[in-house]
């Protein structure tokens, strides 16, 4: 039996449980931006797997650091104990975050980073004796798959079976270019002194379809929410660590968030790790002799030393001058390719923020998230040896920073071939 068949007999995969889903593709090795498949083929990873592998796959520098940590201290309880990798990582993260961020709380992944931010926000209001129960989020938002994260997710189709169990959230349309004034007007009525938190994916909504909007629009919404004391949560799980051309999307803003959620690229894609950061004011609301004011949240693997070591290694690579040059190089290539895309009648709404380039595929003159063009595009590109997993009818590039110009060109050419096919 092939690996694929053995898999199909015993495993339940995320998001693919449809009878028409293709057999899973066995991957045996990864190096740089390439995944090597069991059947000998190579696959260019143009989405950094699930948006995590900043430095490509199996980077030797990260591998060495992880191996060394594994032999020194692989894990320890993090309640009442600490260790060098956790402290060092916090010390390195805080200076590169918005200046008001003062504390690092560790968890396991993006969803838990969001859960922790929401729990901190709700309990902040509880602890200071002014409970607030309302949350505002964006339509089409995606913040993860745990219950709190689902509650603030803006695509109800994905969470319908769980709807009765999700807390109440009010949604604002995304202030995409042209809709800013309308959204701001609606926000004037939605934001009140009862809103505990406003959670956003700053500047780029990822899973919702790579919807992009301008810093000015978010600044205005943040400023408005803040007049009501509402806590601002920036979910930078996807946008963090250089994706948008700055280290964090929040650095494009003049209004600073109160809480931030980080994960995905933090370890360069080697290990699962989540981080929630907050201001001194939030942390201080939990400092008390009253035990009931503590944050009741802790995972078995909180601040796992191997994950922290991987993150430290990934940061060494990321903060290197050469990496910043790589990011600029990818941005420039993307911008040039966007011009080429503009010539295609089956492409619409081309948008770019840093190393993220996205566009809609148009079928029958229409652009619709839910249509079968997704599967056609996905399969076509896989056959060309390019991994780009479309979001509905949205195709996007989110390459590892080590992707060479030649590799980028291979992916661009595959997309152009797809467009030619769709134009016929
Ligand atoms: N927030 C955002 C913005 C995300 O893109 C994701 C993952 N796609 C998550 C949260 C959830 O992260 P994880 O899958 O690691 O739980």
From TrEMBL:
NCBIfam families given in the database record: bioA, PRK05964.1
Q: How does it assemble?
A: Homodimer.
Write down what this protein is called: Adenosylmethionine-8-amino-7-oxononanoate aminotransferase
- Residue numbers of N6-(pyridoxal phosphate)lysine PTMs: 264
What subcellular compartments does it reside in? Answer: Cytoplasm
Q: Which reaction does it catalyse?
A: (8S)-8-amino-7-oxononanoate + S-adenosyl-L-methionine = S-adenosyl-4-methylsulfanyl-2-oxobutanoate + (7R,8S)-7,8-diammoniononanoate
Q: Where does this protein act, in terms of pathway?
A: Cofactor biosynthesis; biotin biosynthesis; 7,8-diaminononanoate from 8-amino-7-oxononanoate (SAM route): step 1/1
| Cofactor dependence | pyridoxal 5'-phosphate
Q: Where does pyridoxal 5'-phosphate bind?
A: 110-111, 235, 299-300
Keywords, A to Z, come to: Aminotransferase, Biotin biosynthesis, Cytoplasm, Pyridoxal phosphate, S-adenosyl-L-methionine, Transferase
**What does the record give as EC number?**
2.6.1.62
Q: Which InterPro entries is this protein grouped with?
A: Aminotrans_3, Aminotrans_3_PPA_site, BioA, PyrdxlP-dep_Trfase, PyrdxlP-dep_Trfase_major, PyrdxlP-dep_Trfase_small
Q: Which family does it belong to?
A: Belongs to the class-III pyridoxal-phosphate-dependent aminotransferase family. BioA subfamily.
* Pfam families on file: Aminotran_3
What domain of life is recorded for the organism? Bacteria
The GO molecular function terms of this record are: adenosylmethionine-8-amino-7-oxononanoate transaminase activity
Binding residues annotated for substrate, in chain numbering: 50, 142, 264, 298, 389
Q: Where is this site: Participates in the substrate recognition with KAPA and in a stacking interaction with the adenine ring of SAM?
A: 15
Task of the protein:
Catalyzes the transfer of the alpha-amino group from S-adenosyl-L-methionine (SAM) to 7-keto-8-aminopelargonic acid (KAPA) to form 7,8-diaminopelargonic acid (DAPA). It is the only aminotransferase known to utilize SAM as an amino donor.
């Amino acid at each position: 039996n092939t690996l694929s068949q053995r898999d199909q007999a015993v495993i339940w995969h995320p998001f693919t449980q449809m009878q028409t889903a293709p057999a899973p593709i066995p991957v045996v090795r990864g190096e740089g931006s390439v995944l090597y498949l069991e059947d000998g083929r190579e696959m260019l990873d143009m989405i950094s797997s699930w948006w995590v592998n900043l430095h490509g796959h199996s980077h030797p520098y990260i591998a060495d650091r992880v191996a060394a940590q594994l032999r020194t201290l692989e894990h320890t309880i993090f309640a009442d104990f600490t260790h060098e990798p956790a402290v060092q990582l916090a010390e390195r993260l805080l200076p590169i975050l918005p200046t008001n961020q003062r504390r690092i709380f560790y968890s396991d992944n993006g969803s838990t980073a969001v859960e922790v931010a929401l729990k901190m926000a709700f309990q902040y209001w509880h602890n200071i004796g002014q409970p607030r129960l309302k949350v505002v989020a964006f339509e089409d938002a995606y913040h993860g798959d745990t219950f709190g994260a689902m509650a603030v997710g803006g695509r109800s189709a994905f969470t319908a079976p769980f709807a009765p169990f999700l807390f109440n959230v009010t949604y604002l349309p995304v202030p995409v270019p042209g809709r800013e004034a309308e959204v701001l007007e609606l926000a004037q009525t939605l934001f009140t002194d009862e809103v505990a938190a406003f959670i956003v994916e700053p500047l780029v909504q990822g899973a919702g379809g790579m919807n992009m909007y301008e810093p000015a629009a978010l600044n205005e919404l943040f400023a408005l929410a803040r007049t009501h004391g509402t806590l601002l949560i920036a979910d930078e799980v996807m946008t963090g660590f250089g994706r948008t051309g700055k280290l964090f999307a929040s650095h494009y803003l003049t209004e600073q968030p109160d809480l931030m959620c980080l994960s995905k690229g933090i370890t360069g894609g080697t290990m699962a790790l989540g981080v929630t950061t907050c201001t001194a004011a939030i942390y201080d609301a939990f400092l008390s002799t009253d035990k009931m004011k503590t944050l009741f949240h802790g995972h078995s693997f909180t601040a796992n030393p191997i994950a922290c070591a991987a993150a430290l290694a990934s940061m060494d690579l990321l903060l290197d001058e050469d990496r910043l040059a790589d990011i600029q190089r990818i941005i420039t290539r993307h911008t040039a390719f966007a011009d080429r895309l503009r010539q295609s009648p089956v492409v619409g709404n081309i948008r770019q923020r840093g190393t993220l380039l996205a566009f809609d595929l148009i079928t029958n003159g229409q652009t619709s998230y839910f249509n079968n063009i997704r599967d056609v595009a996905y399969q076509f590109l896989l056959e060309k040896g390019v991994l780009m997993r479309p979001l509905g009818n949205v195709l996007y590039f989110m390459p590892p920073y080590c992707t060479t110009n030649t590799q980028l060109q291979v992916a661009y050419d595959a997309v152009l071939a797809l467009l030619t096919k769709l134009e016929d």
